[in-house]
Amino acid sequence: MKLSSQLVAVVDDDESVRESLPDLLKELGFSAVVFTSAEEILASNIVQNTRCFILDVTMPGMTGPDLQVQLARRGVSTPIIYITAQKDEALRSRLIAKGAVACLFKPFSDAALQDALRLAIGWP
């Protein structure tokens, strides 16, 4: 599997995450694109070409879980990894029960992200 052909979309209203996470993804061999909101990614033409979504749970307007519902309504079953500053195990359990591959608490380690990506796309 050629990792450079794997597009990961990051949706987070936190500018520091939008700046740092794509750099890490690129170091891991992925292509990355960032969006400031759920509404922005839904209005883009990138959704069908995305191999994995990394979504913030809490954002102004449409939340990450709201976006997951909208994607499902559009027939999109691309794996989702959530990231959140809310260190809430019950929240993590609910998100995974609703189909997320993983829910990482910010700040998360590079290794935790790698493990979640392995689960999401079967990356070795």
UniProtKB/TrEMBL annotation:
Residues 7-121 form the Response regulatory domain. It holds the Pfam family Response_reg. It comes from the Bacteria. Keywords: Phosphoprotein. Transmembrane segments: none annotated. PROSITE patterns: RESPONSE_REGULATORY. InterPro entries: Bact_response_regulator, CheY-like_superfamily, Sig_transdc_resp-reg_receiver. The modification 4-aspartylphosphate is found at D56. This is Response regulator. The lineage of its organism: Bacteria, Pseudomonadati, Pseudomonadota, Alphaproteobacteria, Hyphomicrobiales.
